[in-house]
Write a structure and sequence with these properties.
Blueprint (H helix, E strand, L loop, with lengths): L5 E4 L15 H14 L3 E5 L5 H10 L7 E7 L11 H8 L4 E7 L2 H8 L3 H17 L3 E7 L1 H7 L1 H13 L4 E6 L6 H14 L5 E5 L6 H11 L3 E4 L13 H11 L7 H4 L2 H12 L16 E2 L2 H9 L17 E2 L7 H10 L9 H15 L8 H11 L8 E10 L7 E10 L2 E9 L2 H13 L10 E9 L10 E8 L4 E8 L2 H16 L9 H5 L7 E3 L1
Parallel strand pairs: 1-2, 1-8, 2-3, 3-4, 4-5, 5-6, 6-7, 7-8, 9-10
Antiparallel strand pairs: 11-12, 12-13, 13-17, 14-15, 15-16
Helix pairs in contact: 1-2, 1-12, 5-7, 6-7, 8-9, 9-10, 13-14, 16-18, 17-18
């Protein structure tokens, strides 16, 4: 029978201790719903005794009817006090959570230095706290903090902590590599010994990533007999983060052959990772294993030629298993295989023997030599390919733009953009204000185009990045601008390059609108149809 591994998600608690991550109660509830849809078994929502935001989360989450067990976090009672009088334990018991994660010290050094109490009192604190929560009907997961450091320095005391928790009724004993400094072989040896000495105990693992080993250590613990893995989506967490469940889950399920999530749920891994990233407002690394946009991206021409024959040549799994997809990148390293594959992906019938194919490859290589990069700007690349195929119609004829940036004492900077262009037989001159030059350009261009292309009301700029290409030239350096745009259904990225950041931004901005309007035809203007008076900004010639 295939062994099943329990997935304990602590994104909403341990994950929020990562630098730059702050979630509101609403954010936490949205993520909890997404985690439940993914199929994790436990969702640790926070500490109901620490702040009002977590109190609100536990109150509202009960209305959602989630299948996962909602878990409240807290520490053992204070030294010299009783569990019944401990306010934090009371709030856990009253939170409405089905389970409680109780953290206690298992390293004698920490007992003496951090708690400043005796080893015996620490054991009593653990026992009293677990019994208190068990009497109130909660499942108790005991997190043995600093377990592996304690095991290395005083293994007998570390094991006595686990025995005390087990005898008090803890349902799970979770071994924590709190400082993230333990090696995989040390994890394996310790867990192997504990499985032998405590065969009835259900062991879990909680690892941190300070040595870039959190995932490896979690896998080592499972290989040695651990039955629960605690971690976070995208590896968020304090210092260098926690074990990344987006790597742990597929490794356990696809490589170890263990049951973690239903097979159909595994395909939700990529959408979940990206959703959590958006809510947390943290950029998701392109190269993140399994779920990153580059996890199954291919750039070298030899690689692409091979994967077109059989994807197993350069992919360790089918990307669809985790909800990802294969991507072919087109760059100065690209061969004809890359370009043809990309065209096929876009539904473009590009003959590999045609002059257009050769010209397009040479054009892309020339542009990349000048600083363009299409790996992160698929929309600009698609426009190039569709131009080669004769599909793209120009939206307008550009004539000029001007910028005005004004700073007055005691007032914020104001940017104004003036855009002049021609659509059909009409010339338009529009102005727009913004909180920066690019925002002003966007507003001015949008104002000019909206009457002809009302679909632009659905799109907006969602991200803007500037990269200096040659810092030796200081302020005279070329810059590359990447703009990400979105509508209700899709997101796309475009690129522009120039020695002037405004011109580079204009290129990327225009491409973003060209892409949004692929296949669109300009609507007839009121003036041309009905002979009405021209609108403000419309110059008739």
């Amino acid at each position: 029978m295939t062994r099943s591994i329990t997935i304990f998600d602590t994104t909403l608690r341990d994950g929020t201790q990562g630098e730059g991550i702050s979630l509101s109660a609403d954010d936490k509830l949205k993520i909890a719903i997404k985690l439940d849809e993914l199929g994790v078994h436990y969702i640790e929502g926070g500490n109901p005794g620490s702040n009002g935001k977590d109190v609100e989360f536990f109150r509202r989450v009960q209305e959602l009817g989630l299948k996962a067990k909602i878990t409240a976090f807290g520490s053992t009672r204070r030294k010299g006090a009783s569990a019944e009088d401990d306010e934090n334990l009371k709030r856990i018991a009253e939170s409405g959570a089905q389970a409680a994660t109780l953290v206690g010290k298992s390293w004698d050094f920490h007992v003496h230095t951090a708690l400043q109490t005796t080893l015996e009192e620490n054991l009593a604190m653990i026992e009293d706290s677990i019994r208190y929560l068990k009497k109130r009907g909660l499942e108790v997961i005991f997190d043995a903090e600093h377990f592996f450091d304690g095991y290395k320095h005083n293994s007998e005391y570390a094991k006595s902590v686990l025995r005390a928790a087990s005898e008090a009724g803890a349902d799970w004993l979770v071994l924590c590599d709190t400082n993230g400094g333990t090696m995989p072989d040390e994890i394996r040896d310790a867990v192997t010994a504990l499985v032998t000495e405590m065969p009835e105990a259900r062991l879990g693992i909680h690892t941190h990533n300070d040595c870039e080993l959190a995932v490896a250590n979690a896998l080592s613990a499972v290989a040695a007999g651990a039955l629960q893995v605690q971690g976070t989506i995208n590896g968020y967490g304090e210092r260098c983060g926690n074990a990344n469940l987006c790597s742990v889950i597929p490794n356990l399920q696809l490589k170890f052959g263990l049951n973690c999530l239903p097979e159909e749920k595994l395909m939700q891994l990529v959408p979940t990772a990206r959703y959590v990233s958006e809510i947390a407002n943290v950029h998701m690394p392109n190269g993140q294993p399994y779920v990153g946009s580059a996890a199954f991206a291919h750039k070298g021409g030899i690689h692409v030629s091979a994967i077109l024959r059989d994807s197993r040549t350069y992919e360790h799994i089918r990307p669809e298993l985790v909800g990802n997809k294969q991507r072919v990148l087109v760059s100065e390293l690209a061969g004809q295989s890359n370009l043809i594959s990309k065209a096929q992906e876009l539904g473009i019938d590009l003959d590999p023997k045609s002059p257009q194919a050769s010209e397009t490859i040479n054009r892309i290589k020339d542009l990349e030599h000048r600083g363009y990069q299409f790996e992160g700007a698929d929309a600009s690349l698609e426009l190039l390919l569709r131009e080669a195929d004769g599909e793209v119609q120009e939206l307008f004829t550009f004539e000029s733009f001007k910028m005005l940036v004004e700073k007055s004492a005691g007032k914020p900077v104001v940017s104004e953009a003036f855009v002049k262009l021609r659509i059909g037989g009409e010339s338009l001159y529009t102005a727009g204000e913004g909180n920066g030059p690019v925002n002003a350009l966007d507003n001015a261009l949008r104002k000019a185009l909206l009457h002809y292309y009302p679909k632009l009301t659905d799109m907006h700029l969602s991200d803007y990045k500037v990269r200096v290409l040659d810092d030796k030239e200081a302020t005279a350096s070329k810059v590359r601008v990447l703009i990400e745009s979105r509508d209700a259904k899709n997101a796309w990225s475009t690129v522009g390059v120039s020695g002037n950041v405004i011109e580079a931004s204009w290129e990327a901005l225009v491409d973003s609108m060209r892409y949004a309007l692929l296949g669109q035809q300009p609507q007839e203007t009121t003036a041309s149809v009905h002979g009405a008076e021209p609108r403000p900004g419309l110059l008739n010639h």
